Amino acid sequence: MTVIGVIGAGSCNEEVSRTAEQVGKLVAERKAVLVCGGLGGVMSASAKGAQAAGGLTVGILPGSDRNECNEYISIPVVTGMGHARNAIIANTAQALIAIAGEYGSLSEIALSLKMGKPVVSIGGWSGIDGVIPVKTPEEAVDKVFLILESAYS
Fold first, then answer.
1. How far is residue 19's CA from residue 55's CA, in Å, rounded to a whole number?
2. Which candidate, 49, 43, 44, places its Cα nearest to that of 105?
3. Which residues pair with 77 in a beta bridge?
4. N or C: which end of the chain has fewer CB atoms below 10 A?
5. pLDDT tens, 93-115?
6. Which H or E run contains 147?
7. pLDDT tens digits, one per residue of 127-141
């Protein structure tokens, strides 16, 4: 089963939220598992979109309380690791889609690139070598699946 990470800001505006929700929906429609940090903002919106499309969502939580996850997480994974949980997200995902975000997202991007995994970004992070900038959720999901299909064929 393909696992796609969706990362981004823990709180976001409506436009970013709509983008993340659409990405989650498209990931689920491709029968992939969506993994994220399990909290609010981009994480919640992408999980909402995936769940609405019948997808499986995994939230890698920073704390030790499974109840801290957003309501759209199917499988909460408690780590008690704080920001170090970003390494688990980067390791678990076969590719990342970054939507907005701050330093936590930057750490996930850096770890994924270090591991040789594809990172696609909507609306930011395009100045980082290896990050593939796109403009729409459709482009983002199409790009990560195209890269993964060519890597495994």
1. 17
2. 43
3. 60
4. C
5. 999 999 988 899 999 999 999 99
6. helix 137-151
7. 899 999 999 999 999
CATH, residue 28: 3.40.50.450
Token output for 108? 């996930």
Residues in the chain: 153
Q: How many other C-beta atoms lie within 10 A of the C-beta of residue 12?
A: 21
Query: Would you tell me how many other CB atoms lie within 10 Å of the CB of residue 114?
Result: 10
User: pLDDT tier at 122 (50, 70, 90 boundaries)?
Assistant: very high
Span 45-99, pLDDT tens digits: 999 999 999 999 999 999 999 999 999 999 999 999 999 999 999 999 999 999 9
Exposed e or buried b per residue across 83-108, where buried means at least 16 C-beta atoms within 10 angstroms of its C-beta: eebbbbbbeebbbbbbbbbeebbbbb
Structural domain boundaries, residue 55:
3-151
> Which helix (DSSP H) or strand (DSSP E) does residue 50 occupy?
helix 42-52
> Structure tokens of 113?
């690139």
